[in-house]
Design a protein that fits this description.
Layout (H helix, E strand, L loop, with lengths): L2 E5 L7 H5 L13 H9 L6 E5 L4 H9 L6 E5 L5 H6 L4 E4 L7 H18 L4 E4 L4 H14 L8 E3 L2 H14 L13 E3 L6 E3 L14 H12 L1 H8 L8 H18 L5 E8 L4 H11 L5 E9 L2 E5 L7 H26 L4
Parallel strand pairs: 1-2, 1-4, 2-3, 4-5, 5-6
Antiparallel strand pairs: 7-8, 9-10, 10-11
Helix pairs in contact: 2-10, 5-6, 6-12, 7-8, 7-10
Bound molecules: nicotinamide-adenine-dinucleotide.
GO biological process, one term: tricarboxylic acid cycle
GO molecular function: L-malate dehydrogenase (NAD+) activity
Organism: Dentipellis fragilis
């Protein structure tokens, strides 16, 4: 205990690589899955690590298994019930499977993987990384509901990359990157574009007094669209993978600590607001709409979401951001829910 499983653990093998005969090169570090699996293998809280993907997992698992940390690693492919074997006994399942910026394809992949979780590991904590998180998390919820195993306390959309970016960018502005690990900025709402709402007024390290409203616009926009910065720098060959793997491992570590009984674990995450009925209702009042899912600071205990925190005191500027996020989010949630009824995204 505990067993962590990564679904989509191989990282991408691009067609170009296949042409060059690299398709079986399992040591090539690419995508989110491989570095995420590496970080989880390096985490002494993990005692078993199951890896599943449609390619390469036996190689990735063999490679990781030589690392001198406690986790026993096994890699599975789809034949011979691989998904079922990977998920058996899982306490925590992280899903980075998919294709970057291909929402329709990801919706189907996530639906199928969620079906596997519903039938094999219905009590596991589920951490969804595959985009669009605003819609893929509702998809997972709908699949779990269909199988009558939905526990809203254990389903999390991973928005940690936005939080990590906010901490880093604020530390950069303060001119002291050594502050990056300790700067805490709640990022609420959802996980794409304008649905990402950084509450910079609540930053644990306040922004400089000289920070003008144009600077605030620029910083907010950089946090909301940080992914584009990476896509452009990678010249279209990929999106954020290493920073996402770091962020995913950060959030998974919080869950592992909560499972181990550590108290006071709080982090923003995109959750079903029934996970804490009273907290969820209070939050709906704050945002002025009856949304099913929203990301806010969430307290996590051994059974999952223990409390959904309110947004608290926010500025007029931040209120406007929330107002812009809500309708977009409502549409994204509806798309996810409808995908299970009529598969289109
Ligand atoms: N939440 C976030 O902040 C965030 C950030 C960046 C990327 N993403 C998303 O994460 C996902 C993965 O991105 P990436 O860059 O690692 O992509 P990638 O293509 O490098 O890796 C995806 C992996 O998923 C695997 N896969 C595909 N179909 C599968 C299936 N049915 N079962 C199991 N594995 C399957 C692929 O073989 C590949 O190894 C994308 O949806 C991307 O948009 C999320």
């Amino acid at each position: 205990m505990p067993k962590a499983v990564v679904l989509g653990a191989a990282g991408r093998v691009q067609p170009r690589d296949r042409d060059r005969g690299f398709a079986t090169d399992s040591t090539r570090l690419g995508g989110i899955g491989q570095p995420l699996a590496l970080l989880l293998k390096a985490n002494p809280l993990v005692t078993e690590l199951g890896l599943f993907d449609i390619v390469n997992t036996p190689g990735v698992a063999a490679d990781l298994s030589h690392i001198s940390t406690p986790a026993k690693v096994e890699g599975y492919l789809p034949p011979d019930d691989g998904l079922k074997k990977a998920l058996t006994g899982a306490d925590l399942v992280v899903i980075p499977a998919g294709v970057p910026r291909k929402p329709g394809i990801n919706a189907g992949i996530v639906r199928d993987l969620a079906t596997g979780i519903a039938t094999t590991a219905p009590k596991a904590f589920i951490l969804v990384i595959s985009n669009p998180v605003n819609s893929t998390v509702p998809i997972v919820a709908e699949v779990l509901k269909k199988h009558s195993v939905f526990d809203p306390k254990k389903l999390f959309g991973v928005t940690t990359l936005d939080v990590v970016r906010a901490s880093t960018f604020v530390a950069e502005i303060l001119g002291d990157l050594s502050k990056a690990p300790s700067v805490v900025v709640p990022v609420v709402g959802g996980h794409s574009g304008v649905t990402i709402v950084p509450l910079l007024s609540q930053s644990s390290s306040p922004l400089p007094a000289s920070f003008a409203s144009a600077d605030l616009d620029k910083l907010t926009n950089r946090i909301q669209f940080g992914g584009d910065e990476v896509v452009q720098a990678k010249a279209g060959t990929g999106s954020a993978t290493l920073s996402m793997a770091y962020a995913g491992a950060e959030f998974a570590t919080k869950i592992l600590k909560a499972i181990a009984g550590e108290k006071g674990i709080v982090a923003p995450s995109y959750v079903h607001l029934s996970a804490d009925a009273a907290g969820g209702e209070a939050l709906k009042k704050e945002i002025g709409q009856d949304l099913e899912f929203f990301s806010s600071n969430v307290e996590i205990g051994p059974e999952g979401v223990a409390k959904i925190h309110p947004l608290g005191k926010i500025t007029e500027y931040e209120q406007k951001l929330v107002k812009a996020a809500v309708p977009e989010l409502a549409g994204n949630i509806e798309k996810g829910v409808n995908f299970i009824k009529a598969p289109k995204l």
